[in-house]
Each structure stands twice: as structure tokens, then as C-alpha cells.
Fold this sequence. Notes:
Elements: H1 2-26, H2 29-46
Amino acid sequence: AIGVALAWSREDDRVARRRDRKVDRDGDVEMDEYNAMLARMAERDDRP
Length: 48
């Protein structure tokens, strides 16, 4: 069980580093789209 936990932790670290490199290279498209969606939702909520 400890070995599985260690393997999972290492894989999680690798995935995080891979995503960080992609964001550094290409920008964070997913986060930009999410923020745009939240902005649209906020605009709808602000309307009387």
C-alpha cells in the first residue's frame, strides 16, 4: 500500500510539472476560458 501511495504521488508530481510547462509555453487557456465564463455569469447576475 505504501508503494502504491508513493507511485501515485510521483505520478501526480510529474503531471503537475508537465501542466506547468504547458502553461508557461502556451498560456493557461483552460483558466482563461473559465474566467471568461465566470465574467459572463457575473454580468447576467448584475442585470436588473
